[in-house]
Amino acid sequence: KLYDTPGVHLHHRQAAVIHADDLPSLAPQSRLKGRCFPANDTDVGLSGNTLFWGGLVRIDVVKALPRTRLTFYGPKKLSINMVPTTEADEFYKREVGVMLTPPTGQERAEGWCGLQGVRELQIKYEELDRPASDIAISGLGWIAVEPLGVPSSDPDSSVEEEDGDSGELHLRVHVPKPVEVFVRAPLPVGKAASQWYRYQELTEVEEELRPKWHY
Q1: How confident is the model at residue 215, as a pLDDT?
Q2: What is the pLDDT of residue 202?
Q3: Which segments constitute the NOA1/YqeH-like C-terminal domain (predicted)?
Q4: How far apart are the first and last CA of the chain?
Q5: Which of 40, 57, 144, 148 has most Cβ atoms within 10 angstroms of its Cβ?
Q6: What is the rounded CA–CA span in Å between residue 37 and residue 72?
């Protein structure tokens, strides 16, 4: 039998940790559209910087290629802000509840649990022309990690980056403590996905782990 359980409280989702009045900010209002950092028309690298997704997620980019890009898929009401990692702690203390929402307002910010959960992610990549993975934030959305997502005007830059890197990106993700963070294979979203997506059959190990259905 298959049971549908809408509205069940799940402690590991963002909706379980924010104030009830902030819940509408997590609800999708329209079709999801990715927001890219850095944008195509900038030369700012991500290494040494921190990105805040509202007041709910902090991503420290410890190690990345010069043209690594993160694309955020989730509620449009949550702003995305980038600051140097050395300034991130002070920025969060000052702006949570103001620029970084939810939580919304000083009163909710004072009672906020903070971003106590930390995941160290070592993301390996084998192909530079496709996303390496998605970082999924339970109850919020996901972030596509593209090793070489930002176009370059230098045709030799991708070769130099590939030869000079060990094939691994290092990110540190902060969320409220109960919220789950997990890495998965990239979802083929948007027109660009048709250029890199390839269907793959399950391996024998994956077949064994797959739930068995009995009719």
Answers
A1: 54
A2: 80
A3: 67-146
A4: 9
A5: 57
A6: 8
* Bridge partners, residue 51, by sequence: 59, 82
Among 124, 153, 164, 136, CA closest to 59: 136
> How far apart are alpha carbons 22 and 45 in whole angstroms?
32
> pTM of this prediction?
0.84
Contact criterion met (CB below 8 Å) for 64 and 135: no
- The two structure tokens encoding residue 19: 């104030």
Rounded Cα distance, 137 and 181, in Å: 5
Whole-angstrom distance, CA of residue 210 vs CA of residue 150 = 36
Q: Supply the pLDDT for residue 53.
A: 97
CA-to-CA distance for 171 and 90, rounded, in angstroms? 20
3-state secondary structure of 69: strand
Q: Which amino acid is at 11?
A: H
User: Which residue in this structure is represented by tokens 């805040």?
Assistant: 52
pLDDT value of residue 63: 94
Task: Give residue for tokens 């690594």.
Answer: 68
CA distance 139 to 92: 21
Q: How far apart are CA 95 and CA 88, in angstroms?
A: 10
Does residue 103 have a cis bond before it (omega within 30 degrees)? yes
| Residues in a beta bridge with 57 | 53
Neighbour-count burial of 18, counting CB atoms closer than 10 A to its CB (0-12 exposed, 13-18 middle, 19+ buried): buried
> What residues contact residue 59 under an 8 Å CB cut-off, 6+ apart?
50, 51, 52, 53, 70, 135, 143, 171, 172, 173, 174
Query: How many other C-beta atoms are found inside a 10 Å radius of the C-beta of residue 153?
Result: 6
